Amino acid sequence: MKHMGVKVAQRFVAVDDHDRALTFYRDILGFEVRQDHTFEGLRWVALGSPGQPDADIVLQSLVVYPETSPADQQALAELLAKGLLPGLVFRTEDCDATFEHLRARGATVAQEPTDQPWGVRDCAFRDPAGNALRFAQLRRRRKDTGDGGDSGDPPSSQPSASSGRNG
C-alpha cells in the first residue's frame, strides 16, 4: 500500500491542573507553547519540541465530555494519579544525559536508565498529573543476539512494575 503522507499531528495528555502541567512541559522538558486558549470553560494548551514544529502535545482536562458519569470521572482521576493512563515516549540522542538533566530540574523519576531488549536504552519520569513519560535512545542492533530489531518501540509506554508505578 502506498503511504498517504499521514503523520501524527497531536497527542492528547490528560492533566488535572493545566498550570502545573504547563510549567512542567515548558520549564522542565523545554517545550515551546504553541497555543493557550480557553473557550466554553475548557482550556486548550498545545506544546511541542522546538525541533518538531508539526507535532504537538495537547494538555487536556481529565474529563471533557459532559456525558461522563461522576463514577467514571473518579475512576479516570484514580488511574491518572497512579500513572496508568497511556503515556508518551520521546526519542533522545543520549538517555543518560536526558535523565540527569530532568532529574536535576526536579522531575519525578519512575525508572533510571535501562537497556531494554527491544533495542533502546530508556528512562521514565512522571509529569505532575502522574502521566508516564519515557525517554528512549535507539541502540544499534546486536546481530549476535537475534533480538528482533532496533525499532525502539517498547511493548508499552508504562514503566515496569518494579519501577515504582504506584508511587
From TrEMBL:
Pfam families: Glyoxalase
Disordered: annotated segments: 134-167
Gene3D superfamilies, alphabetized: 2,3-Dihydroxybiphenyl 1,2-Dioxygenase, domain 1
Biased amino acid composition, Low complexity: 152-167
Domain VOC: start-end pairs: 7-138
GO molecular function: dioxygenase activity
Annotated keywords: Dioxygenase, Oxidoreductase
Stored InterPro entries: Glyas_Bleomycin-R_OHBP_Dase (IPR029068), Glyas_Fos-R_dOase_dom (IPR004360), VOC_core (IPR037523)
Protein name as it appears in the record: Glyoxalase/bleomycin resistance protein/dioxygenase
Organism encoding this protein: Salinispora pacifica
Lineage: Bacteria, Bacillati, Actinomycetota, Actinomycetes, Micromonosporales
